[in-house]
Write a structure and sequence with these properties.
The complex is a heterodimer. Chain A is mainly α. Chain A is built from 14 helices and no strands. In chain A, α3 crosses α7 (109-139) and α4 (63-87) runs antiparallel to α7. The longest helix of chain A has 32 residues, at 240-271. Chain A has one domain. Chain A has helices at residues 2-6, 12-33, 37-58, 63-87, 89-96, 98-104, 109-139, 148-173, 179-186, 189-194, 206-212, 216-228, 232-235, 240-271. By secondary structure, chain B is an all-alpha fold. Chain B has one domain (16-284). Chain B has helices at residues 2-31, 36-62, 69-101, 105-109, 115-145, 156-183, 191-202, 214-222, 224-236, 252-284. In chain B, α3 packs across α9. The chains are: A mainly alpha, B mainly alpha. At the A-B interface, α3, α9 and α10 of A face α2, α3 and α7 of B.
């Protein structure tokens, strides 16, 4: 009884923070405990990247395009993480029976999603860094960074907007069953194409590039390429300043949308009994 | 003697029945998650996007010279590689789907059927869908990029023989990965994709092997898929064969011979390796394992 009386139960923002840390914890610690990801999560995107590098080599493209591919290859890790470990995550949680436990617990689903995003961002950044460093060394990519602060700001904004989008998609995927896997699978190559992972986005016409910019990685990568490659500015879609403003807008938009969508979808899933219907 | 013949017939019938039923099951799993419209969109958008990435990369560098043989080389290699990915990954996906997702692998194991035949049949639907994707991708190339393909000029005999041998080799690779998946506890979902991505590089699918460093070219020569893709390119565009930069010194007959020998060797090796992994999986209790990973 005495022990129970001393137990401190967090509420409010403390509970929110505790949930974020709790959900991020397995993703951060997992990178140290299970090292098999070193092979699978780095080798796979690395192989895809190498393929595109050699295509440019075979076509005798300017060397800077190799740098574009290395950066794009690293950024694929983030998109894959968004699709499979953010958007589809609540579907996996439903499959393993955790989703109903989340809903029953006295914490906020938004905090759970934020924890997933924080942990996923950390683990994926480590992967992306390894890909960039190894890729740059192997293919002798030369970088000329014009502003480290701006580069850091663009990367951070891109990640906030991207993971905000992931949180929003996660709430939509909560209602899905088997189609979640297929839809996530469908969203890989088309986004690699539209967001210009392996070529400058300005290769498309203005309206296609603008539409593709709804995905934060499009403008994020374009701005980062402008900041780290000498010819980046000439191949850029819009100026870095405009792209920073758009990314800021997308960050706010996706986080707010994630909040409202999550509430709506959670209510809908409860009403329609879709929180526990695995293999339907 | 008569009894032995009868038993053999019965066994063949059972193999066929297993194959047919598992192919039907695979098709249901592959297609019935949505309506036909979305399924067709899904089957078209994915391969076309993959091809479009290469088309844009090519057009940026080559000033849109789509009549060059190197464009046909890249386009055909990329289109047909869709099948490689499907066949090689198909079996291991079947193992994981049945074991981890549907949790039915243990029931399959206690049924009086051949597991390798079941797994092969299970991946047929995926293979069929990808063949359609290849056809769509080729049509897209012919219509929008004037890819010089003509049904009258295709060497159908060469295409058929090469594809049969190529399919045997790829199915063998799939069986090896499928067996391996039985004993992998973590990250098994990525196994097929990782091997597929490696083969994309080393098979010369979208660039000639000569672009790779010398030490890595050896890997490409050891992968039978490289020979299959070369034969397919030559069969699809016989008049451009000399302009394609891979295995130019080898004739079609020599390439077929290499591919045929590889098919025999891979079949023997695949059966032995699958049996070994199958034994390990049974011994370690992996058949009904759910890793939740």
């Amino acid at each position: 009884m005495a022990a129970q009386a001393k137990m401190i139960k967090n509420t409010g923002w403390r509970l929110f923070l505790q949930t974020v840390i709790g959900r991020a914890y397995p993703r951060v610690i997992g990178t140290q405990r299970d090292l098999s990801w070193l092979f699978f999560d780095i080798f796979f995107p690395f192989m895809s990247m190498i393929g595109y590098v050699f295509v440019y080599r075979a076509l005798q493209a300017p060397e800077e395009y190799i740098g574009f591919v290395v950066m794009g290859g690293a950024m694929t890790a983030f998109w894959v993480n968004i699709l499979w470990s953010m958007s589809s995550q609540l579907y996996w949680e439903k499959e393993t029976g955790n989703l109903s436990l989340y809903i029953m617990s006295p914490t906020s689903m938004m905090a759970i999603l934020l924890g997933m995003a924080t942990g996923g961002l950390f683990a994926t950044t480590v992967r992306a860094l390894v890909i960039v460093i190894v890729g740059s060394l192997i293919f002798k990519v030369a970088y000329v960074v014009t502003s480290f602060w701006l580069l850091f700001a663009v990367f951070s904004l891109t990640m906030v907007a991207l993971y905000g989008m992931g949180m929003m998609l996660a709430s939509l995927f909560m209602l899905l069953n088997r189609e979640a896997w297929h839809l996530a699978n469908l969203a890989q190559e088309p986004i690699f194409l539209l967001s210009g992972f392996y070529f400058p986005i300005s290769s498309f016409n203005f309206w296609v590039s603008l539409t593709a910019s709804l995905i934060p990685l499009t403008m994020g990568m374009d701005a980062m390429r402008q900041l780290v490659f000498p010819s980046g500015a000439t191949l850029g879609f819009l100026s870095v300043t405009i792209e920073v403003l758009v990314l800021s807008g997308l960050s706010v938009l996706f986080l707010v949308a994630a909040y409202f969508m999550l509430r709506k979808m959670e209510r809908l899933a409860i009403r329609e009994g879709r929180l526990t219907d695995r293999l339907n | 003697m008569e009894i032995a013949v009868e038993n053999k017939d019965l066994r063949l019938k059972r193999f066929w029945k297993t194959f047919k039923t598992s192919a039907w099951l695979g098709w249901q799993i592959e297609s019935n998650w949505t309506d036909w419209f979305l399924f067709i969109i899904y089957s078209i958008v994915k391969p076309i996007s993959g091809a479009a990435i290469l088309i844009i990369m090519y057009s940026i560098v080559s000033s849109q010279d789509f009549s060059s043989p190197i464009f046909a080389y890249i386009y055909l290699g990329n289109a047909f590689f869709i099948i490689v990915g499907a066949v090689v990954q198909g079996v291991s996906w079947g193992v994981l789907d049945d074991r981890e997702h549907y949790r039915t692998l243990k029931y399959i194991y206690i049924a009086p059927i051949s597991i390798p035949i079941y797994l092969m049949g299970r991946s047929v639907a995926n293979f069929g869908t990808r063949v359609v994707s290849v056809i769509i991708t080729l049509l897209f190339g012919v219509i929008f990029f004037k890819l010089p393909l003509s049904l009258a000029r295709i060497d159908w005999g060469l295409l058929t023989i090469a594809s049969i041998l190529g399919f045997i080799v790829m199915a063998d690779m799939g069986l090896i990965l499928g067996g391996w998946s039985l004993i992998i506890k973590r990250n098994a979902w990525n196994l097929g994709e990782t091997v597929g991505a490696a083969m994309f590089i080393f098979s010369g699918a979208v660039f000639p092997l000569s672009v790779l460093p010398k030490a890595l070219q050896v890997v490409g020569y050891a992968i039978p898929v490289s020979y299959w893709l070369t034969l397919v390119r030559r069969a699809m565009m016989p008049e451009n064969a000399q302009a394609f930069p891979m295995f130019a010194e080898l004739s079609n007959a020599q390439l077929l011979l290499i591919l045929g020998a590889a098919a025999i060797v891979f079949t023997i090796v695949a059966v032995l390796i699958f049996r070994y992994f199958d034994y390990l999986a049974r011994e370690r209790g992996n058949i009904d394992m759910v890793s939740n990973y």
